[in-house]
Design a protein that fits this description.
Elements: H1 2-9, H2 12-27, H3 33-50, H4 58-85, E1 103-111, E2 114-119, E3 122-127, E4 136-143, E5 146-151
Parallel strand pairs: 3-5
Antiparallel strand pairs: 1-2, 1-4, 2-3, 4-5
């Protein structure tokens, strides 16, 4: 049935698939189907030029679609990864990493390597040497949601 549909629609079947994938991308979260839609679009462009040729079977079209999709995925990942690296605020969604270098007063003493501080209205679990509450500490690094501190 699928081959019959492709034979009836000719090269336009790839354009219909491309538009369907791109439309589905609009309603689904993430950037996943856009790369397959681009692969179908490129295969449709190639099909317009090669449709009457004997070697342009559905197998060759499928191989081209897979190849174009893989190339667009790889290029898209590279393009998007470079965009994230050039962000003007690389620590925007890493709240604990933004606290490195800040000082605070221990609200709960550090015992057996763990205690708590309050920064910007939020309680944070801290790790460091045993210290009494009321001691000023500086955030040295962040590991997940835990902050590593030392005396300020």
């Amino acid at each position: 049935m699928l081959q019959w549909l492709v034979d009836q629609l000719g090269p336009w079947s790839w354009w219909i698939l491309a538009l369907s994938l791109l439309a589905a991308e609009l309603v689904m979260p993430g950037m996943f189907l856009v790369w397959f839609g681009l692969g179908a679009l490129l295969t449709g462009l190639l099909s317009l030029a090669l449709w009457g040729d004997f070697f342009w079977s559905w197998q060759a079209q499928t191989i081209c679609f897979i190849a174009f999709s893989l190339v667009s995925i790889l290029l898209g990942r590279r393009l998007l990864r470079d965009d994230v690296a050039n962000s003007d605020e690389p620590l925007l969604n890493q709240r604990s990493a933004n606290l490195v270098g800040r000082t605070a007063t221990l609200e709960e003493p550090i015992r057996e390597g763990r205690g708590r501080i309050k920064l910007d209205g939020t309680w944070w679990v801290v790790q460091g040497p045993d210290l009494d509450s009321g001691t000023r500490v500086m955030v040295m690094s962040a590991r997940g949601h835990d902050l590593m501190v030392d005396t300020a």
